[in-house]
Design goal:
Layout (H helix, E strand, L loop, with lengths): L7 E5 L4 H12 L3 E6 L2 H13 L3 E6 L5 H15 L4 E4 L14 H29 L2 E6 L3 H4 L5 H20 L5 E8 L5 H6 L6 H9 L12 H8 L10 E4 L8
Parallel strand pairs: 1-2, 1-4, 2-3, 4-5, 5-6, 6-7
Helix pairs in contact: 1-2, 1-9, 3-4, 4-6
The protein binds nicotinamide-adenine-dinucleotide (NAD).
Length: 253
């Protein structure tokens, strides 16, 4: 990928699953990677793995729902690695249950992590990118945000919100050298899917696999290529786009 060498890039939720795979790939591409995760040990382990493979990485314990903590961590990363160039909004969370059985406290947690998290990070980072006249924001949403997902009503609403938010940011920043794009994973073999399916005894995973034209769950490594592309110089004329990486589960014109 062109243009990633030595670029400071933040990956939220980089301690596990998809975010960890993204961090490793960006490290291989030469980016200076910041892992922002509330799982401190996991973040440190992911950063250590990137360094072990010859990359540059820093770990920060951050709860993305806490605006002040996000701003402090971005400042600390910039001191260590230079002015931030890229942001990957990846951290997310859900627990599958029918909407009717959920309560406002649960909705708040889901929206705080999946929508406020990206709002906080993007608010802190986007103005810095605009000041330098260059930068990239990539958000990991979900096919749930495009086509819905039974048992994930509030999560789907938050993920749909992320897609619309990225499009609007793409418009507001179109002449400032900053692009905003969204990747929608389908069901992926990570701890998140395992916990969502915990009460179903694997039945949800089985049903989802059958619905995927390529007949397999995604693996975390299915995403980093698309993330690296959106962050690269080759994607400089692409903004406000949403792409599903989900084995054909959802197809959009
Ligand atoms: N796994 C799937 O099937 C699937 C499908 C579609 C979309 N996604 C999306 O992909 C992204 C990554 O998911 P994953 O499956 O790798 O999940 P995961 O649970 O393996 O990893 C999520 C990471 O986010 C971190 N995190 C959660 N809340 C946080 C917070 N408040 N502050 C900081 N860090 C926080 C966790 O500690 C964890 O390290 C999420 O946005 C998720 O919604 C996943």
């Amino acid at each position: 990928m062109r243009g990633l060498d030595q670029k400071p890039v933040i990956v939220t939720g980089g301690a596990s699953g998809i975010g960890k795979a993204i961090g490793l790939r960006l490290g291989e591409e030469g980016a200076r990677v910041a892992i922002f995760d509330m799982n401190e040990k996991g973040a440190e382990a992911a950063a250590a793995e990137i360094r072990q493979k010859g990359g540059e990485a820093w770990a920060y314990k951050v709860d993305i729902t806490d605006y002040a903590a996000v701003a402090r961590a971005v400042d600390a990363f910039e001191k260590a690695a230079g002015q931030v160039y890229g942001l990957v909004n990846n951290a997310g969370w859900d627990e599958a249950k029918p909407f009717i059985q959920t309560e406002p406290d649960f909705w708040k947690k889901v929206i705080d992590i999946n929508l406020y998290g990206p709002l906080n990070l993007t608010h802190v980072v986007a103005r810095r990118l605009a000041e330098q006249g260059a930068g990239r924001v990539v958000s990991i949403s979900s096919d749930a945000g495009r086509v819905g997902s039974s048992g994930e009503a509030v999560y789907s609403a938050a993920k749909g919100g992320v897609i619309a938010f990225m499009k609007t940011m793409a418009r507001e920043f179109a002449r400032k050298g900053v692009t905003f794009n969204t990747i929608c994973p389908g069901p992926t073999d990570t701890p998140l899917l395992a916990s969502v399916d915990a009460s179903g005894g694997g039945r949800l995973t089985e049903a989802l696999t059958k619905a995927i034209p390529m007949r397999r769950l995604a693996q975390p490594d299915d995403y980093p290529g698309m993330v690296a592309f959106f962050l690269s110089d080759d994607a400089s004329f692409i903004t406000g786009q949403t792409i599903s990486v989900s084995g054909g589960l959802s197809m959009h014109g």
